[in-house]
Write a structure and sequence with these properties.
By secondary structure, the chain is α/β, with parallel strands linked by helices. It contains 7 helices and 11 strands. Strands 1, 2, 3, 4, 5, 6, 7, 8, 9, 10 and 11 form an 11-stranded mixed β-sheet that branches.
């Protein structure tokens, strides 16, 4: 058993968590470069929280410009045991109306221009992404969203697109044929990197708009999205408070805590020392266990 330290990754419209007790912004250095911003650390109901605005305060970073590896590494260095991403998404299904929250359980990754792994030549690892989110954490997040007053859908497939442009109508219709429920630009490779870093991950999608598949409607426009973002952000902040109140006092171990035990494939004598140095926190636990 251990204490929870919940990392919150805030997407578009969520750049701070005002209710944190004794809040402090701190800078964290990582071997992967700079994270999107400083980390906001504080407590709620005795639970430690670490908040990171994914796009930086003031929304400085585009989805493709986010250093996802640095963000996940920084959250782990700050002691996070679990990560909850709260992200703006577009809807690909009629029943998922703007304002609804969707607790995602699957992804289709269509990003093409991002570093999607901590591992590579000289230290190869393969983690399973069959079930890409933590069911325990997702359940807590869904309950917290409901307690915060949101209408919540539990489960859904998130299509991660590169952006920064929105979809064409043909793309939007294709993603619906694939069975996707929501679309966004930042859930990947974030979820993959969290799994590599042995951090249970959940993603709460805040629907801001219908994607452009609906016939006879205007295409997605930023101003309309921003208006819905502001409405969603207040509920998202309440979600964080409700999550703090609902978590069990002690954190039971998760299978994701040790998923690298069976993922590393490069023989010890063939491992690249420079890459290993960068992986000191991501896989330091399993490397020490192999000594």
């Amino acid at each position: 058993m251990s204490e929870w330290t919940i990392g919150i990754i805030g997407g578009s419209g969520l750049y701070a968590v005002d209710a944190l007790e004794d809040p402090q912004w701190i800078a964290v250095d990582t071997p992967w470069g700079k994270p999107s911003d400083e980390l906001l650390i504080g407590r709620l109901d005795g639970v430690k929280f670490v908040f990171l605005p994914r796009h930086g305060r003031g929304h400085r970073l585009s989805p493709s410009g986010v250093n996802y590896r640095a963000n996940i590494d920084a959250m782990k260095r700050a002691g996070c045991t679990d990560l909850v991403a709260i992200s703006a998404v577009g809807s690909l299904q009629e029943e998922l109306a703007p304002g609804r929250f969707v607790v995602v359980d699957q992804f289709i990754d269509r990003t093409v221009a991002r570093d999607s792994s901590f591992f590579g030549n000289g230290m190869v690892a393969h983690v399973s992404m069959a079930e890409p989110v933590c069911p325990r954490l997702s359940s807590f997040a869904a309950a917290a969203a409901e307690a915060a007053g949101a209408e919540v859908s539990k489960g859904g497939t998130y299509l991660a697109m590169e952006g920064p442009q929105f979809s064409s109508r043909a793309e939007s219709e294709l993603y619906r044929q694939w069975g996707c429920d929501v679309i966004g630009m930042s859930g990947m490779p974030e979820a993959k990197l969290a799994r590599e870093a042995e951090l249970p991950y959940a993603l709460v999608g805040m629907v801001t708009d219908y994607d452009c598949w609906r016939a006879g409607e205007d295409a997605v426009e930023v101003q309309a999205i921003i208006a819905q973002l502001m409405a969603n952000a207040g509920t998202a902040r309440k979600l964080v408070a409700e999550l703090a109140a609902a978590l069990p006092q002690e954190r039971a171990p998760s299978p994701i805590d040790t998923n690298l035990d069976t993922a590393l494939i490069t023989a010890p004598e063939a491992r690249d020392r420079a890459l290993l140095a960068k992986l000191d926190l991501v896989c330091g636990r399993v490397l020490k266990a192999q000594l």
